[in-house]
Amino acid sequence: MAMDILNKVLPDSETKPDISHDDGDRERFAHYVQKEKITQSAVTGDPVIALCGKVWVPHRDPKKFPVCPDCKRTYEEMTKK
Fold it and tell me: N or C: which end of the chain has fewer CB within 10 A?
C-alpha cells in the first residue's frame, strides 16, 4: 500500500515550483543547494532546488538564518558511510 502512495502522480497544480520572493515562512531557513547551482542562479536568475525540495530564486544571506532541518537530515543521510 505504501508503494501506491509513492507512485501517485500529483496534478499539475500541486507540482508547480514556488519561486516566490516574499518574506513568508518559507524564508525562515537557510537551505542546502549545490554551490555551482547557486552561482548559476546568481548569473541567470533561474530557481534552484534545495535538498528538502524547496524551489526558489535565492536572494538572501543564508548565514542570517538557521539551517533547514529537512535539508540537514537529507544531507546527513546522503553522507553516511
Answer: C
